[in-house]
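CO-FOLDING WORKSHEET

Operator: S.A.
Ligand of interest: flavin-adenine dinucleotide
Run index: 422
Mode: holo prediction, single chain
Checklist:
[x] sequence pasted
[x] SMILES validated
[ ] output reviewed
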Amino acid sequence: MTRTATDVIATDVIILGAGASGLFCAMTAAARGRRVTLVDHARATGRKVRIAGGGKCNFTNLEMHAKHYVGGNPHFPKSALARFTPWDMVSLVSENAIAWEEREHGQLFCLHAADDVADLLERRCRAAGCRFLLGQRVEGVEHDGTAFVVTIAPAQAPGSDTDSDAEPGPQAAGRGGPGTPVRLRAASLVVATGSPAWPQVGATDIGHRIARRFGHAVAPPRPVLAPLAMPPQWPLHGLAGIALPARVTTAGVSFTLPLLFTHRGISGPAALQASCHWQPGAPVEIDFLPGENLDEMLRVPEHGKLLARTLLGRLLPTRLADRLVPPDISDRRIAELSRTARAALHAAVHAHAAVPAGTEGMRKAEAAAGGVRVDRISSRSMESALRPGLFFTGEVLDVTGQLGGYNLHWAWASGKAAGEVA
Ligand SMILES: Cc1cc2nc3c(=O)[nH]c(=O)nc-3n(C[C@H](O)[C@H](O)[C@H](O)COP(=O)(O)OP(=O)(O)OC[C@H]3O[C@@H](n4cnc5c(N)ncnc54)[C@H](O)[C@@H]3O)c2cc1C
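OUTPUT RECEIVED:
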């Protein structure tokens, strides 16, 4: 990296965002001999990686397939995923003595701590000569006709790492005084600034604003992998803390996984997964006895003398059963129930329908769907078709993984794809 008399730092590749995909991209590009400079307003690298998976980082999934992603073009992730497989990630962590374990549904987690993965990537980058400019806010991003010019200045206050109001347009450098902006100049610019989900760790939408500036369309971001809030009139409020396996269906997609009642609605893996596919105003349907057939159980002769609420109380948590059984049949014996009453019971248990009021928002969302539309992005290299040398990687793109290690794997795979070219 060369600093000139006019305070312009020349480098080959500028990467905005030293998170999951930025680090992976930097490591890959630096291994090709490129001079790489990473800029991040946070003072530590990979902040989301470090909190991922409850601190154990669900870093990939053995069942890797494009069907686990949502976005404007379901085929887009295929190329990068094919060139960086879960086993490539397993090799990387294993070669570096990071112990891992396989949990249900092919999910791979660190045995020790998520920090191990972030530290590994940072170490690899530093060893390959990458320059880190941490605690730096992005003041401006432009193309001067031959190269990208990024203006940065120290983030305003120590510890402050949110500058979502910064407009990434052209800015004057060298104003003097503390926090004097510096210009970086490079032929390649990689935007790896993630999505606005979980702003507590400094997530912003700056990547979307940079994309728009260079003519890219952006699908409106919406919080996903987030709890669903139910409207005030929802009959199952007040059951916070109850957890059970359930099948949650929305937009024709079903997930049979643990469900958790919260103070505002539903959470747990089944609800979080459903939130990826849920659209505002659409219903969700919950089957509280997935894989069972209540009709058949009602026909079992020994059940005939039981009260409806007693049988349901044996099959489900009692407080939930009491809410689900219609009051007019709760104290009637199973054998006495009419066909209509049985159908009502069946529907209450197997097809509870509700229209969520919304998700619990970006602060509770592990990801944001939407982002830079991929129609003008190369699925092979993540390079912009509108501005050669401009790349977008990771969650800033309109590619969102389901729960289970898919988002981090996308960050690694897309970061690597860009790093091979940028
Ligand atoms: C609580 C939580 C748990 C998660 N657990 C998992 C999991 O176990 N498995 C999984 O697959 N996925 C998980 N995810 C999702 C995963 O962490 C993200 O999808 C992934 O980190 C995205 O990678 P990225 O490189 O695109 O963005 P990020 O990793 O978010 O990196 C973006 C970087 O850009 C920087 N940045 C942002 N705005 C600016 C700005 N204005 N100026 C300068 N720098 C900026 C940020 O500081 C950050 O370092 C989790 C997310 C959360 C919030």
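REVIEW:
The chain has two domains: 2-222+368-419, 228-359.
The first strand starts at residue 2 and ends at 3.
[x] output reviewed
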